[in-house]
């Protein structure tokens, strides 16, 4: 077989469909975010980032950076091993305590990313719980889907955010079997929010465990940043709350929080937890500092929501179509992969605005979009510049709101 020809043909297919991914070479600067240097290949220029998941700008916060420096000076670079074999650093232990407290749970377990936490935790629960059936929301993230697949448990997909469909599907399963309902609080691409209370009601009725991914909500919602489950007073009804340390907390890593026994179970059986080097202590220290700060300060959350509202208002005034939702995610709908990429390129090249196009398979074909994530550090002038640039492009290419519907 001509392997190189095969790789080339597959890549050419992505180009033809307009969904070949080009990474934008950025250099973020301490104190400068959302500004960043774009290394273009020919030179460099300053751009404003409008699609970061460092939702609150905590990646630039002095408390986080100082905590990382201090841990680096104290412990050196890496953890030195897996958690089991010399790699449990005291900063990991402190971080797990911080996370258990954040979600008002008995225990927490950290992983090398949010992706790994979903894959490892769901993979282990699905594989080990006797004769388990996992009920998965149809819009669940790839990391949950992969975890469920690798568990080889029976999988039932319920209609997105539809407790009635979940109820019907759960009712068909023999009562004695283990059951787990996996879903998200804020869905990252449409920004819609799950009816967590109703899903918990249904799960409880059928004796199913509940597993909630709060990756796009932790740090951002709830009085202490415990996510939508905290805001709705529902944390106690969720058996597992999963989150990331890489988005609002702006460092790196993932976690689950749950009962002492459930965490101990995953700790003891999940290969994705056991057989990998643990996070660098400086990363754990930075994440803990970020969580601690956001537990005590709502200023960033308030400013974040205010900025999001302002962007929506400006888009409304300019007649730019976006998906309405009750979260912080602003999906500007283009609904064509080639056009979406062209708009993103124009924003970057002509206006110094960076918004990555979102194409299939991240979103369904025909729903390609610019996923805009306003943050507390975007100024009024930044918002005017963004919306002005979008208006210019929209007029230039003759797009109208109706075309995107
Ligand atoms: N869950 C959801 C819903 C996500 O969107 C993501 C990342 N985009 C993850 C999990 C994985 O988190 P991490 O980036 O920390 O690996």
TrEMBL record:
The keyword Transferase applies. SUPFAM superfamilies: PLP-dependent transferases (SSF53383). Residues 46-390 form the Aminotransferase class I/classII large domain. Gene3D superfamilies: Aspartate Aminotransferase, domain 1 (3.90.1150.10), Type I PLP-dependent aspartate aminotransferase-like (Major domain) (3.40.640.10). CDD domains: KBL_like. Its EC number is 2.3.1.37. Pathway: Porphyrin-containing compound metabolism; protoporphyrin-IX biosynthesis; 5-aminolevulinate from glycine: step 1/1. The keyword ATP-binding does not apply. It comes from the Bacteria. It catalyses: succinyl-CoA + glycine + H(+) = 5-aminolevulinate + CO2 + CoA. Its cofactor is pyridoxal 5'-phosphate. Pfam families: Aminotran_1_2. Keywords: Acyltransferase, Heme biosynthesis, Pyridoxal phosphate, Transferase. PANTHER family: 2-AMINO-3-KETOBUTYRATE COENZYME A LIGASE, MITOCHONDRIAL, CLASS II AMINOTRANSFERASE/8-AMINO-7-OXONONANOATE SYNTHASE. Belongs to the class-II pyridoxal-phosphate-dependent aminotransferase family. Homodimer. This is 5-aminolevulinate synthase. It comes from Methylobacterium thuringiense. The gene is hemA_1.
